[in-house]
Structure formats: structure tokens, C-alpha cells
């Protein structure tokens, strides 16, 4: 059954499948948890912008994010995506063109999603958000066994389950998630960020800090340590969507876009990173449609929650812009893609979905 599934995926993705990839030396992955493809490609949703019964500030949404066309709305929401990435990178997942990007796992929530992204294996045994150490090897862990990546692969995230998803103990990766302080020799900035994360409002009442803390802790680490593989796991979008706050959800997406711009501008102005680094941006799952408040939710009971998107920019990526090709790709292809871009083949003990050919070769 599983075998057949992989074969069918492999064949359906044969268009993308390729052994040749233009090479990068570093990879940066950013995820925005549960951010819908509908907003990426269409900006603010008209139903949610003009829902006058809404408990969130629809007037704020109208003022900051509304415009009469989808092309204008998406540019308002994600200006970096719809300038730099659209010009020089690729955006997959606009279903209006038949360009599909999906979860291959059947669960459509976070741990199975991040497992799929980083292990390349939509393992049906990974079916809970509990802090269970992941038995599947992830691509950062795999690559960090090569001397050139040893000690150079790091994970930062707002959600305190990333340590389990990346199996911190076994993988030996530096993982800074939840409200954990960064340790070791710290700059003055890093000391302040450690303090601020505890002093900022604990909006989500769990083990999840605000993305503003995660971004700055990770970005300062990037500047001081120059890792070759770094993950920024952002989560505000999902939390605000669950809370039904469309205004804050869009705000979080826009702030993430601005952080991604900062990361990219840093990459392209820093020797060692410049023109040698590919940036991959995606999400762990989709969400439902606006009608019936389904946009707030995800999981296998929400029909559209397995619909996603991904974007990439860098020397290994052809400047296709928004892909309008009829195609089907999966989140689980990202792990092998990361390795292929670095000139490696990802060969863990479990099956892996094939790499995407982002270079167009
Ligand atoms: Zn969620």
C-alpha cells in the first residue's frame, strides 16, 4: 500500500524529478505555520474582509490589506514575496492555475507536517503533536554528519515541539524553541533577546513564544555564527487563525514577509552567503475556506487543509516566478531537494519522496 503510494507520487511528480541541480552551499528554511495558499496568492480574503459580524477588526483589514484585485492585495500583504521572489525565485501552489502543492501525509496538522518537510517521509505513524522524539532522521541531521556541515546546522522555532520533531538528543542539532534561552557566549543583543522573550506577553498560553522573539534570536545567531543550514520556524499565523483573529493573522503574515526580506538582504550582502545560499519558504499545512469559519481550522476533517504552497529563491532556483504549470508536488519533496541543492543525496533509513527540480534543469 505504502509502496504503491510512493510509486504513484514518484510518477505524478516525474515532471519535477531531476538529478541535476545548480549548487548552493547554504540553505535557509523559513516556515509560517498554517498560512493558507489563498492569502499567499490572493491576499486578504474578500469574505473575511467584509464580514461585518466578525469579532476581529474587519475595518483594520480593509484599511491595511484590501485592494480591488488579488494581484494588488497579495502585494500589499507580502511585498517581498511579490517583488523579489516573484522576480528572481519561484512560487508553487496557485491552484487557480492547476499548480498543486500538498501535504502527502493525511493528517494536516503541525508535527506530521514538519516531519514531512524535514524527513521527506509522510510517515503515517507520525500522527500526534505530542512531544515524542522523532524516530525519522531529518535532512539537517543527515547533512550534519558530513564534515562541512558538522556543527553548522541549527533549528530555531516558536513552538516548543521542534526539539522533538528534530529529535534534538539524537540529532545533536542546536535547537532553540519555545521559551528557551540561547546559551554559550552571547552578544549584548542576544542577552537582551533572551530576556525580552519572557517579558513579552505570553499570548498563546502554551509553550509557544511570539515570532518576534524567535526571529531576532535566530537572526542574531545567524549573523554571529554563520550556520550553513538554518531553520526559522514561525508560528504566529496559526495561533491567530485558531483564535479567529483575521486581522492579527494577516499582520503576522506581513511581518513574516518583512523578516524574510531582512534575511534575504543579509544573505545577499554577506560574503560566504551571497549568491551561495538558497532560501526555501513554506508551511506545515493549509486551512479551510472562509465560509463557516473553516479558515480557522485544519486537520483531516477540513477538506482543504492539505493544500499548501512553497517559495524559493537562490542560485539553485530558476526565476520562474509564480508557477502556472499544471503540476502536483508535495511538501515531502523538500527534504531531498535541500540535499540535492547542496550536491548531496538524502539517503536515510526510511523512504524519501523525490527532490523537486527548482533549477529547471
Ligand atoms: Zn494549528
Total beta strands: 10
What ranges have pLDDT less than 50 throughout 5 or more consecutive residues?
11-20
CATH superfamily: Alkaline Phosphatase, subunit A
Give, in spatial order, the strands making up the sheet with the most strands: 5-4-6-1-7-8-2-9
The largest sheet, given as strand count, sense and whether it forms a barrel, is:
8 strands, mixed
What is the CATH C level class, in words? Alpha Beta
**Overall mean confidence score, pLDDT:** 94
**Strand percentage:** 5-15%
User: H/E element string?
Assistant: HEHHHHHEEHHEHHEHHEHHEEEEH
- Give the names of the bound compounds: zinc ion
Rounded to an integer, what's the Rg over CA atoms?
A: 19 Å
> Helicity level, as a percent range?
25-40%
Number of domains: 1
Structural class: alpha/beta
Structure write-up:
With 361 residues, the protein is α/β, with parallel strands linked by helices. The chain has one domain: Alkaline Phosphatase, subunit A (3-Layer(aba) Sandwich). 37% of the residues lie in helices and 12% in strands. It contains 15 helices and ten strands. The chain has helices at residues 2-12, 37-42, 46-49, 58-65, 70-77, 81-88, 110-119, 139-143, 162-165, 168-171, 188-199, 211-225, 236-242, 246-267, 334-341; strands spanning 26-32, 90-92, 99-102, 153-157, 174-176, 229-234, 277-282, 310-313, 321-322, 327-330. Helix 11 (188-199) packs antiparallel against helix 12. The longest helix is centred in the last third of the chain and has 22 residues, at 246-267. The relative contact order is 0.24. The model is unreliable at 11-20 (pLDDT under 50). It binds zinc ion. Residues 34, 110, 238, 242, 298 line the site of zinc ion.
Amino acid at each position: 500500500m505504502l509502496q504503491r503510494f510512493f510509486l504513484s507520487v514518484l510518477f505524478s511528480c516525474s515532471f519535477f524529478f531531476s538529478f541535476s541541480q545548480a549548487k548552493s552551499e547554504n540553505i535557509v528554511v523559513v516556515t509560517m505555520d498554517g498560512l493558507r495558499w489563498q492569502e499567499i496568492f490572493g491576499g486578504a480574503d474578500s469574505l473575511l474582509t467584509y464580514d461585518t459580524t466578525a469579532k476581529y477588526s474587519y475595518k483594520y483589514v480593509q484599511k491595511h490589506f484590501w485592494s480591488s484585485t488579488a494581484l494588488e492585495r497579495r502585494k500589499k500583504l507580502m511585498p517581498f514575496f511579490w517583488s523579489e521572489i516573484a522576480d528572481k525565485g519561484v512560487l508553487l501552489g496557485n491552484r487557480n492555475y492547476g499548480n498543486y502543492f500538498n501535504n502527502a501525509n493525511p493528517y494536516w496538522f503541525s508535527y506530521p507536517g514538519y516531519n514531512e518537510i524535514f524527513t521527506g517521509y509522510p510517515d503515517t505513524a507520525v500522527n500526534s503533536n505530542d512531544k515524542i522524539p522523532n524516530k525519522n532522521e531529518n535532512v539537517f541531521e543527515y547533512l550534519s554528519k558530513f564534515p562541512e556541515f558538522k556543527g553548522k546546522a541549527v533549528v530555531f522555532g516558536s513552538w516548543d515541539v521542534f526539539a522533538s520533531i528534530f529529535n534534538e538528543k539524537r540529532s545533536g542539532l542546536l535547537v532553540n524553541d519555545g521559551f528557551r534561552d540561547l546559551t554559550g557566549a552571547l552578544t549584548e543583543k542576544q542577552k537582551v533577546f533572551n530576556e525580552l522573550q519572557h517579558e513579552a506577553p505570553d499570548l498563546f498560553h502554551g509553550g509557544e513564544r511570539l515570532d518576534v522573539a524567535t526571529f531576532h534570536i535566530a537572526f542574531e545567531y545567524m549573523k554571529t555564527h554563520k550556520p550553513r543550514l538554518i531553520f526559522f520556524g514561525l508560528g504566529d499565523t496559526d495561533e491567530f487563525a485558531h483564535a479567529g483573529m483575521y486581522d492579527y493573522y494577516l499582520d503576522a503574515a506581513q511581518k513574516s514577509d518583512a523578516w524574510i526580506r531582512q534575511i534575504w538582504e543579509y544573505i545577499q550582502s554577506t560574503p560566504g552567503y551571497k549568491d551561495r545560499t538558497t532560501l526555501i519558504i513554506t508551511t506545515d499545512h493549509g486551512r479551510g475556506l472562509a465560509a463557516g469559519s473553516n479558515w480557522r481550522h485544519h486537520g483531516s476533517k477540513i477538506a482543504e487543509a492539505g493544500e499548501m504552497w512553497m517559495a524559493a529563491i537562490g542560485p539553485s532556483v530558476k526565476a520562474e516566478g509564480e508557477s502556472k504549470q499544471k503540476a502536483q508536488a508535495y511538501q515531502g519533496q523538500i527534504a531531498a531537494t535541500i540535499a540535492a541543492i547542496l550536491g548531496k543525496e538524502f539517503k536515510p533509513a526510511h523512504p524519501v519522496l523525490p527532490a523537486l527540480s527548482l533549477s529547471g534543469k
